[in-house]
Amino acid sequence: xxxxxxxxxxxxxxxxxxxxxxxxxxxxxxxxxxxxxxxxxxxxxxxxxxxxxxxxxxxxxxxxxxxxxxxxxxxxxxxxxxxxxxxxxxxxxxxxxxxxxxxxxxxxxxxxxxxxxxxxxxxxxxxxxxxxxxxxxxxxxxxxxxxxxxxxxxxxxxxxxxxxxxxxxxxxxxxxxxxxxxxxxxxxxxxxxxxxxxxxxxxxxxxxxxxxxxxxxxxxxxxxxxxxxxxxxxxxxxxxxxxxxxxxxxxxxxxxxxxxxxxxxxxxxxxxxxxxxxxxxxxxxxxxxxxxxxxxxxxxxxxxxxxxxxxxxxxxxxxxxxxxxxxxxxxxxxxxxxxxxxxxxxxxxxxxxxxxxxxxxxxxxxxxxxxxxxxxxxxxxxxxxxxxxxxxxxxxxxxxxxxxxxxxxxxxxxxxxxxxxxxxxxxxxxxxxxxxxxxxxxx
Amino acid sequence: xxxxxxxxxxxxxxxxxxxxxxxxxxxxxxxxxxxxxxxxxxxxxxxxxxxxxxxxxxxxxxxxxxxxxxxxxxxxxxxxxxxxxxxxxxxxxxxxxxxxxxxxxxxxxxxxxxxxxxxxxxxxxxxxxxxxxxxxxxxxxxxxxxxxxxxxxxxxxxxxxxxxxxxxxxxxxxxxxxxxxxxxxxxxxxxxxxxxxxxxxxxxxxxxxxxxxxxxxxxxxxxxxxxxxxxxxxxxxxxxxxxxxxxxxxxxxxxxxxxxxxxxxxxxxxxxxxxxxxxxxxxxxxxxxxxxxxxxxxxxxxxxxxxxxxxxxxxxxxxxxxxxxxxxxxxxxxxxxxxxxxxxxxxxxxxxxxxxxxxxxxxxxxxxxxxxxxxxxxxxxxxxxxxxxxxxxxxxxxxxxxxxxxxxxxxxxxxxxxxxxxxxxxxxxxxxxxxxxxxxxxxxxxxxxxxxxxxxxxxxxxxxxxxxxxxxxxxxxxxxxxxxxxxxxxxxxxxxxxxxxxxxxxxx
Lengths: 443, 508
Fold this sequence. Notes:
The structure holds two protein chains of two kinds.
Chain A: H1 6-11, H2 16-25, E1 31-36, E2 40-45, E3 53-58, E4 64-66, H3 76-86, H4 97-120, H5 125-156, H6 158-162, H7 166-178, H8 182-196, H9 204-223, H10 230-240, H11 246-252, E5 255-270, E6 273-282, E7 288-296, E8 309-317, E9 325-336, H12 346-349, H13 351-359, E10 366-376, E11 382-384, E12 390-392, H14 397-407, E13 412-418, E14 423-430, E15 436-437
Parallel strand pairs in A: 7-9
Antiparallel strand pairs in A: 1-2, 2-3, 3-4, 5-6, 5-8, 6-7, 8-9, 10-11, 10-13, 11-12, 13-14, 14-15
Helix pairs in contact in A: 2-3, 5-7, 5-9, 7-8, 8-9
Chain B: H1 3-12, H2 25-33, H3 41-58, H4 84-96, H5 99-111, H6 123-132, H7 137-143, H8 146-154, H9 173-179, H10 182-195, H11 197-206, H12 213-222, H13 232-239, H14 244-255, H15 261-273, E1 274-277, E2 284-287, H16 295-299, H17 312-323, H18 328-333, H19 337-345, H20 350-364, H21 367-375, H22 385-397, H23 400-409, H24 416-422, H25 429-444, H26 452-463, H27 482-502
Antiparallel strand pairs in B: 1-2
Helix pairs in contact in B: 1-3, 5-7, 5-27, 10-11, 10-12, 12-14, 13-14, 15-17, 17-20, 20-21, 21-22, 25-26, 26-27
């Protein structure tokens, strides 16, 4: 049973330091009395104290406990234990008493949690409607303010706005958060990032105008939301910052069972909020979806599927945005990547862009995969497909060089992100060979 | 209106242009058909940006780039890549900056006899790591193949890796020699002297007249690698140089060439200066100091002015003895090094004699002399730090096998600790066993404020070979050492896993 790969375990870590400490603990010499059954894995770890720590991790929901004094959950010992388990280094066995006691105490605890969650739910449908109406009102006000701000922006010109300090953009973003339109705030911050990095991007005017259009379209669409097709209306709500409850997705989201290859992953650590975003490519259905999760403080981050592997899983689609966000409802067997999927040319691959935009015109970053491209390393790197058309490369230099090295100057299959202007390679393989991620879990 | 026109208007701002400069009438018509009210300047520009930015994305067609020239593909590397587990291990080391372990990983790959190659994808990260750490290149270069050389052609920072592996381009050696910086020239010369000493010598000679004296001295010193009789004339040219540092380097190289004209002169001077006199009780050393420093001696690099605190006679004796080959003394006196040292102890000249022999022994790596010097420390200063530093030179000049045998025979010598620091990874099996024995005692004792036990743990963690654990009951380890002891255990187990992975079958 290797449902958790190493990367997936590391993504559980509350922060980068904990992940590193966990790696150091993933050492069978530190451990004694390790074992596992279908529900739980356990072991005793020799720490800096005289008595070993007793560590256990439930395999169904990933909850862990350890007798060490650390306040981090999961602690480094639990991470180490799960890493050893991911490596297949722990044998099946019968749990000792301290493990069975913990297991026996758990069902009661999770039942308590469920009760508590239930009590948060909408007990009174009328009150819920009132709350929704008042939120819409706030968003109305936020959108109105955004419209005025955008009008001012174009009156003064993007050239003038580009030289504004970060605080100027941020102030407006914060007002959008106060208006409960978190989506408009991220839209402003995306523009702020383009303005701040204009010094080393010749295409900043195009990018900023593009985001300006996207922002204006959000405002326009909100004002005539009743005339939009249902899919686009739903996409609009999500883009503005309305959330869809996980329970609703779990209950009524369209389900897709497939073998999913995770061909791209980004881990974020922004102040107190950690995030993971993955691109999942379905091998049988050809569906391409995204997994997204956040965790604040010491909350564990649900890690998604093992990055850089192909995993049997069932996902449930969130409504609205494209490529669809998913909830993972079942995880099965997992193995190393095979050859990458991909279109024969950039033009063919970009059919997905038009398809996504027709349902969700705010789709910003879209995953693309193309076979047999040639890397052209120059002042501005290009990826040329078999038809001779090429797009510019962006992203970390390390990933670019890794891609060039994998190719050795010969055609490669590549998967990555298209932001409308340049392509960020995330996974690659020499033509027809098994693929792999170009960046590790830390990148 | 074109996208570019729209972008220009947006950048300038609608407030700065008249009606004619904004969105033209045709666009108004288009907006109207979409049900959008053109309204004021700002709104028209925003409508335009919304519609055209989406249209641009949906209809994007990558431009033709058929005319851009692609690099010629790298030559194929017929060695299979290492297995996936080994690749992940190396990626983890690179991520976390464990350069000692990367070094060992590379040496393991090279030790597989060019049967495996490092993973292609990680070659750029390896090149970057070794660009900032030239020490890593010694283990990296033998593991690399044609891909590295090809990548280095695309990235000037990796120029040092050009012409490595199977695609080694000897033809360009003279070009590199004439144009590259000192580091690259040194690297090239070292490589050539190992494989084709004559070619290396010709390179040095080709730029002799234009190189700086510092470079000349460095290059001449490097002739010591692959040294032969053919190098004599170039070294003599150095000996006649106008700069003292070049002359010294020339003399040092010539002294390593038994039978060279220089060496014959040095031998005759040494023979005249130091003789053995057989007496009934024991042999005696008779030292005759030359009356004056002749021009010939000066030309051979003998320095006539002693450093402060050294007598003029002692200074000359030391230099004359040092210039002769270490092996000369057995034939000249009929005594083995150990006996000579014993006899010298009774001479007034014991210090300069010993210093001279020590210099010759280290230079010639004369195993007999080095062992004798180690076994018979200078009488006036055993155990002091100075003594340890001096004797470490002897240990490091010994062949690895002889050195380890000496350490095993003298496990309690004060030299063992400092020696472990200078014996590079991986330690021999026998030396590793010695260290495991030492660990057993060290781990139990209270370390006090001494950093020594932890330093030993760190060395053992990286250099024990095979990386197996010392047989120590964890409960017996002293409380204050437990954290560093555990660190050592985890590093050892990581290394054990690394060796296992590299002996696995390669990727299909």
